[in-house]
Structure formats: structure tokens, C-alpha cells
Amino acid sequence: VDEQLENAGIPNDLRAPYWSVVRGNTGTRGEAGAWWPVFAGDINAEVADEDRDFVTTAFDLLGEPPYTATTWSDWTNIVKAETGRKGRGLFMPLRLAITGQARGPEMADVMPLLQKKPSLD
Q: What predicted TM-score, i.e. pTM, was given to this entire model?
């Protein structure tokens, strides 16, 4: 797997934690690097029009990396208090805006690997 991760451009010091987070969400070794654009901040996730203002506000409430294992929980608690959103209406738009995927690794595991602050730009 290390060769696939290297070919995907994943820095050596991030390969082990990256693989630990994404291995359950890849079907083959060839897909090993498929999640890297998410962590590198190289995706342009589509956000539903009705969620755009919410996601913009949420991103404004998020600090700069590096993030930790508690960032997701800490951040979503702040967003919940500021916006009143909860449950799926809170979590799904944020997951989609950050990863571009409705399913995938636990967001608490994703956040520490993000190399850039997410944005809608």
C-alpha cells in the first residue's frame, strides 16, 4: 500500500495515519490514494443552496489547522450553539462540504489530517 500512497503524493509522515483512517473506505489498493485530495484541500465540494449560508458560517467558526481528534466535536458544538442546527441537518452539510462524500471515515478522524482549512472558495 505504501507505493500507492507515495504515488498519490501523500507525505511520508502522514501515510500511516492516513491509511489507518481511510482503509475501511477503499475497495482496492488502487483506491488507496483516492481520499488524499480531501485531506490536501483539493476538492470543490458542492453545497446545496439551502446550506450555503450555514456552511459559510460554520467555516467562519473553524480555526486554522492543525486540527486534533477533538476538533470535530468542539467545532460542531460551537456551530450547533450559533446556528441552532442539530443532528443530520448539522452534520451532513459539513461532511459534504469538507469531503464531498455522504459517507466515509469518521469526521473526528478526518479533521486531524486536513492540510488546509476548508472553504467554499
A: 0.93
